[in-house]
Amino acid sequence: MQKLKRAGFTAASFVVILLVMLLLGQAMTPDWQVEPYRDHLQVPTRSTAIASSLGATTPEGTHPVRERKIGITLDGGVRIQAIIREPGDRKGTGPACLFIHGAGTGKSSEVYGDLASAMASAGITTLVPDKRLDTYTTFHRDYQAMAADYGRSLDRLRSWPGVDPTKVGLYAESEGTWISTIMTAKDPGIAFSILTSPPVYPGRRQMAMAATSYLDLIGAPKGIRNVIPRLMGMDLSLLGLEYADFPSLPYLDQLRMPVMINFGTMDVSMPVEQGAREIISRTHANGNDNVTLRYYPTNHQIRTGSRLAKAGLPLEPRYTHNLEDWINAVALGTQANQWSTPMIAGSQPHQLNQVPEHTNTGLIPSLTALLTLMASGPILLAAALVSALIGALGSHLRARGKDRRQSGFSKGLTGRLWSLGLLAAGLMTGLLAYAFTVVRKALGLMHLSSMMASCWSLLSVLCLVFILLLASTLTSIFNRADGKPAVAGSVHWLTLTLTLLGSLAILGSLIFWNILVF
User: Fold this and answer.
1) What CATH number matches the domain at 65-202+246-346, 1.10.287.3610, 3.40.50.1820, 3.60.15.10, 3.40.50.2000?
2) What is the pTM of this model?
3) Where are the beta strands (DSSP E) in 221-268?
4) In the structure, what pLDDT confidence band is assigned to residue 8 with cuts at 50, 70 and 90?
5) Staple 172 to which of 18, 100, 333, 456, CB 3.0 to 4.6 Å?
6) What Gene3D superfamilies would the database entry show (predicted)?
7) How far apart are CA 505 and CA 380, in angstroms?
């Protein structure tokens, strides 16, 4: 009868702990999720060709290319290097294009060489400056200051011999498009703006969509996928990531010049359909319908051969030709109703997930709070181990000194506490290892094997075992048949308290990471 009573107490404790943890997980979940994208564009033609009804444009390869390295002085006296590429036999003046770096590049000698040279051979003078790196880090980026720096390069390009200052525009990729839209909002004299693989939305929202899409592609467990809103809704100021909330959308309202948008349909990190619709909608609302949209069967950098950004990959064969035809047509004065090719064309895109409208936080408001929770469990268990060693040493010394004071744990409780601590530490280690593996696989777009998928289920089952062990431990403490206390001695009480608190902290961490969601 007593065994049945103890089993009932353990079962009730298990159910209560499980329900509390599930409710805690619900409280940790913000009021938004990354949903599948459904408002798909229908591209009328696969041909990406661009032509103006005003006449033919200069084709690529018409001019020999002359290359020259120059220096540009930025605010604070910082001097950067830049590369000018221009048609070597130009007579008169023509259009020009300033290139703006995306994330991951910095040197003018290492990026845009093929693009800029191709444009120069079609009569377009190009300037590729170095990115200023003394104020640019992984955790700190000031897009306003970067726009001012690129403005110095723009002024230099406008004054370059052979350049018509009224026909100078911008080419930007990825993160660089946030910078270019600041520039176009502040400088109405910019003749055109090319936005390639633009994130469009504030970084936190766009990254929530991107991370979820990567996880979907590799077949990550639902539990890992659904932790993205919990992470992306947090205050990330511990890392200094203020630029994650850069207010990008209002700058799109100032795109009053001809705009060209380019996306690779293999790029799952960008809102290839939703973002395009956002730009077109905002420019239309402000009276600008001169927006050309092209889709290519390529990666983020409009390069072929891999979905990933890798060095040495070739550009999509028609890409530079289309850019040149578009810039030269804009230089001719082509208006929205004067294009003889469709405004939207190319490969059919299929955006997997939708950029969320907001990114509120859940119960854990910041990265600091999460790291505190995750660190507290191992720290408390380590303290429990030290306390246990001190208690064991004290018991040994008392035994040698024939001290008859009672101290220690009841029968079976010592084993349960050791099992609880070891299982908690093992689960935390296993979770971190699994998460690291999933991130590595996602960045490489490598599908998770069936064994990796089953490992998540194993962690989930072990977590249930952990809760059952915790319930059994509580039964050993509070529901004893002999009526005697389960613990004697202050050090042993301290060990018990630290072990239980550490286990609960680790359980809370596991719940944050959705370990009970199969």
Assistant:
1) 3.40.50.1820
2) 0.91
3) 259-264
4) confident
5) 100
6) alpha/beta hydrolase
7) 9
